[in-house]
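[Automated response] Your request has been received and processed.

Submitted sequence:
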Amino acid sequence: MTNPLVDFGVTHFGCAFGEERDVATTAKDYVDDPERVMGWGCDTYHRAPDDVFAVDLATEAARKALADARLDAADVDLVVLATSEMPEYLYWDSSAALARDLGIERTKTLLLDNEGCGAGITAFGHIAGAMAVHPDIETVVYAAVNRVSEHHRNRMNINDCVHSDGAAAAVLRRGHTGLRWLATEHFSDPDVCDWFRGDYGGAVAPVAPPGWTSAESVGYAKLHAHFGNDPRRLERFLSARNTNVVEAVDMALDRAGLTREDIDRAVYINDARPGAIQKITDPLGVPADRTNARFAREHGHMGAADQLVSLALHHERGDLTPGSLIALCGISTGMRWCATLLRA
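Generated structure:
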C-alpha cells in the first residue's frame, strides 16, 4: 500500500561517528557510581573530538549518502536536518549550514531541533508534508545527528542510556519503490515537558550559577521528583511509557491499513538495558533478533539519529528483505511518542 498523498522512498545511506570509547573504562569520568552505568548494557559509545560538532557529523554522513547515490549538490531539492542536542550557535539555522557545507547554493531547508530523540522519526512525516505541498521536490537529503555538548549535559546522567555522538543521512527520492514511506504518527503528553530540559543557557537563566558544571546536572532526578519520589507512581508511568510507544505504532499501522502481524522488523531507540527494547517489540510480535538491540550495545544512544543509524546498518548488512515492513518507533522529550512505517 502506498500513501495517497505522496510517494517516496530511501535510496542510499551514509553514517558518521565520533571516536569509539569503552563504557567500562570511561564511566568513572562522568559519574561517581560507574557500576550503575555499566549495568545499562552499553559496551561502547562514540565521543566526537572537541572541534567536531553536529553539522560536521551530519555533513560527513550526507556526503557519503550523496556519493553512494552518485548525486551532487545540484540534484538536491530539499535539505532536512534533525538534531537532539544543544546547537553550535543560538539564532542559527543549522539546516542551512548543512546545505552550505554540502555546496548547495540555493535550496529549500527544514530544521527539526526541538523534538528530541523523536525527531529522526517524525522527520519522515514532515518530509512527506513538504513533498505533498511542493510537487517540484524530487530529491531530499535528510540527516539526523546527535552531538552531546558536555558543557551543558553529562552524557551518562541524562537517563538510563549512555549518550553518544553520531549521524546518519539518507537520500530520499519521489517515486522510489524501496524503503517506501507509508505513515508517520505521534502524540505528546505536555504535562511532563520539563523533565529533560537544560535549565541554563536559555532566556530564563542565560548564565549558570558560578562554579556550576554539567557534572551537577540532575538528569533523571527530575523524573523522580515529578512523581514525589513515589516508586509506585513512577512504575505506573514507566509501564504507560512503553504502552504509548506501541500505541503510536498501532496508530501508524491503522493509517496504513496494516496490522501488527505485518511488521517484520522494529527499530526503537538505542536503549541497551537488558530487555528494554523487548518490552516494546514483544507486544508487536517482533523477535529480539529483528530489532536494533545489538546496535544499542555497540553504539549507545544517539538521540535523533538512533533509528536512522540502525536502519542504515540493517541496510548495509542486508537485513532488509524486499517487501518487508519496518516500524521505526521511539520516545522523546515533550514527552512525545512516535512511529514511522517503511516498506523495504
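Summary generated for your ticket: The chain has a mean pLDDT of 93. The CA atoms of residues 207 and 339 lie 36 Å apart.
If you did not submit this request, please reply to this message.
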